Sequence to fold (189 residues):
Amino acid sequence: MSNKNEEKEIEINDKNINEKETSENINNEAKHNDTKEELTLEEQLEVANKQIEQLKDKYLRTVAEFDNYKKRTLKEKTELVLNGSEKAVCAVLPILDDFERALANNTDDAQAVKDGMQLIFNKFRKTLESLGVKKIETEGKDFDVDFHEAVAMVPGMGDDKKGKVIDCLQTGYQLNEKVIRHAKVAVGQ
Fold:
């Protein structure tokens, strides 16, 4: 954080210096405009060279500032790519802990194992929903290529089932309204 604060202070100081130089240039130009006719060619050349140096300095500062901006955004982008899944992984870790506890428990009671698996499944589904993952509903829906992938056509289902999803073979999911896996379905023909 201190680097960002230091960069901001440097930028503010640079802006103040540039504003001060600009106001001095305006004042100098105003003075010289009044007496421009009186200035010799050498003096005019000297004033022009000073202006060129100031503009060159301003240009170099701007280029350096832009270069720092590019480096900073590249670093932030790299960190985002490397650590982007951190939120999802942290949300799933408690479920992994539940699986470890379930495996460590050596019970012969099939109903207890089934109930435990159901609890873990519900917790996992709620965790995915909190991360923005949503199941694509298929039951009784019209076939929609944006959400469904037809893997089978079922003939002889009647006119009321034509173009409708008959069976879902693999559930599809959306992440924040973007389809991440299409639902594989059988469609009435």
User: Anything to note?
Assistant: Helices lie at 2-34, 41-83, 86-104, 110-130. The CA atoms of residues 2 and 86 lie 25 Å apart. The chain has a mean pLDDT of 84.
